[in-house]
């Protein structure tokens, strides 16, 4: 795997190229690395979604906002590091979403208009597993996915944007849809 500073992550790659270039298994340390970020962690769905349910019991609806905000801020920090490499930051977002799809977060399709972006996922890790583990939800459950994409897009566009999860697999919809707008 190449060092991140030598990778042109802002160019468009296929899923296979992304996996080959940006994902590495360090067998000595027994961990996955994404580019030069040591941030790949695998948790069972029951851990993440169980945490959401317990947080809601303790702090109520604020749990959703807390997780989304944390994911959003994390993505912005991550994306700023990648932005320093130059090129079109939207390709970085597209490549990241392609990698995400390859890692089991659902196939992603990005639709862009002048002041609006719509991300359509056939499912997300959170939405699909929430429905399977706990049944249908009344609310969207893609908290990490939604927040992280929101932060990536804000960084790529270099502006504050508004976002909403319009459809969610956890609610019984056939897909998860995130919409983002700006002035």
What does this protein structure show overall?
With about 180 residues, the chain is α+β, with helices and mostly antiparallel strands. The protein is built from 6 helices and 6 strands, in the order H-E-E-H-H-H-E-E-H-H-E-E. The protein is globular, with a radius of gyration of 16 Å. Residues about 1-10 have low confidence and may be disordered.
Kindly list the characteristics that best describe this protein:
disordered N terminus, Muramoyl-pentapeptide Carboxypeptidase, domain 2, two-stranded antiparallel sheet, 6 strands, alpha+beta, 183 residues, 48% helix
Q: How widely separated are the two ends?
A: 40 Å
Biggest sheet character: 4 strands, antiparallel
Mean pLDDT: 82
Low-confidence stretches: 1-10
Number of E-state strands:
6
**SSE class:** alpha+beta
Using the coordinates above, name the CATH class.
Alpha Beta
**CATH fold annotation:** Muramoyl-pentapeptide Carboxypeptidase, domain 2
The CATH architecture term is: 2-Layer Sandwich
Radius of gyration over C-alpha positions, nearest whole angstrom: 16 Å
């Amino acid at each position: 795997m190449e060092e991140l500073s030598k990778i042109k992550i802002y160019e468009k790659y296929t899923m296979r190229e992304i996996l080959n270039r940006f994902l590495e298994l360090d067998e000595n340390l027994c961990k996955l690395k994404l580019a030069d970020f040591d941030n790949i962690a695998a948790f069972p769905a029951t851990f993440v979604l169980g945490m959401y349910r317990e947080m809601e019991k303790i702090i109520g609806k604020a749990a959703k906002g807390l997780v989304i905000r944390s994911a959003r801020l994390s993505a912005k920090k991550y994306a700023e590091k990648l932005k320093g490499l130059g090129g079109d930051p939207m390709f970085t977002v597209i490549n990241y979403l392609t990698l995400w799809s390859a890692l089991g977060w659902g196939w992603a399709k990005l639709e862009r208009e002048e002041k609006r972006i719509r991300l359509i996922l056939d499912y997300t890790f959170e939405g699909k597993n929430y429905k399977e583990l706990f049944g249908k939800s009344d609310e969207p459950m893609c908290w990490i996915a939604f927040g992280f994409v929101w932060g990536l897009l804000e960084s790529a566009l270099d502006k504050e944007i508004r976002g909403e999860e319009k459809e969610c697999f956890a609610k019984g919809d056939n897909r998860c849809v995130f919409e983002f707008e700006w002035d």
